[in-house]
Amino acid sequence: MPVQKISTQSLINKATFLFKTQGYFNTSISDIAKACDLSKASIYHHTTSKLDLAITVLKQNYEYAVANYFSILYLDQLSGDERIKRFTNAITEHYQDINSGCIIGNFALEIGGQIKELDNYIQAYFNDWRKALIHILSSKYSEAEAKALAEENISLTQGAIMFSRVDGNSAHIHHAMNKLVDLFKEEQIQACL
Fold it and tell me: So what CATH class is 56-192?
């Protein structure tokens, strides 16, 4: 029988989808092999275990978020309004696929401290998201207010992603992103002071 082939990135993409939609514990190597139209043995040409594959998936998603979302909030050469608009547009665009949710958020709920190697990326993701929001919100609010608002927005966004999946409607994500944009409106700032 000829060796079945698939690119490592294609394997990672299919595993990401399965982990997002079925969860870590409910996804087996056999499920991933079937989704890739491979034998189970062929999967092991790309990864040593399901855990190793899940680490790769989380690492890639974490690095993507840092490079494509969080970094926008550090572009200090742009106005705060412009950074917030670019950030919210990037998040909204990314989560238009309401069927699968946020893999790191999903893993955070499912894994919840059970697998240290996965927790490292989950914690880094949420810590970096909070730091990026604090960075930009600190230009308008005190450090304590910026931290509280950042955590509130992350919670709102993760809840919106979940509700969008449940309801089949991305309006929840738009609402969460609009709340973040509103934090930069002058009248909103005055109301908080």
Answer: mainly alpha
